[in-house]
């Protein structure tokens, strides 16, 4: 059976000549009575609970301790002795020597953010990078597959400086910049 093409059933309308039935009350009297009993029971429960917390606490009767057991006498606590630390005086005149290896500096880095066939596209990318606050260069290369206009930034002394500028470009919605060794 095809439910998508099936016709909708006709709406039934009540006959116009019938008399309207008398409206019954929405809530019967026994439901109202039950609600009143439940609410009054809840109120009584709250009042009885709150009455118990206001009662005065009962006094406890002291227990007689037999006199045959002597009470322990508390000895006075001696004064705290003054501590003398030796290492403070020993370390005042000491010098700490730390051996930090030299960081090897690799070749300088460059970052390429685009390579275009049209010089106008490369100029547009360079202008966008200039609006972010960085200076880009356009290098034109003529290879076996035609003329390419590369938009590059650099040289950078290390990868960390190049990564810093790449994050600035990413915040400016320029993605896809690659960091390479300077040629």
From TrEMBL:
GO biological process, one term: cell division
Segments for region (Disordered): 1-20, 56-78
Family matches, as PROSITE patterns: SPOR
Domain of life: Bacteria
InterPro entries attached to this UniProt entry: Cell_div_SPOR-domain, SPOR-like_dom, SPOR-like_sf
Bias (Low complexity): 56-72
Molecular-function annotations in GO: peptidoglycan binding
Keyword annotations of the record: Cell cycle, Cell division, Membrane, Transmembrane, Transmembrane helix
Membrane-spanning segments: 26-47
Domain SPOR: 103-183
Name the record gives this protein: Cell division protein FtsN
Species for this entry: Pseudidiomarina andamanensis
Source lineage: Bacteria, Pseudomonadati, Pseudomonadota, Gammaproteobacteria, Alteromonadales
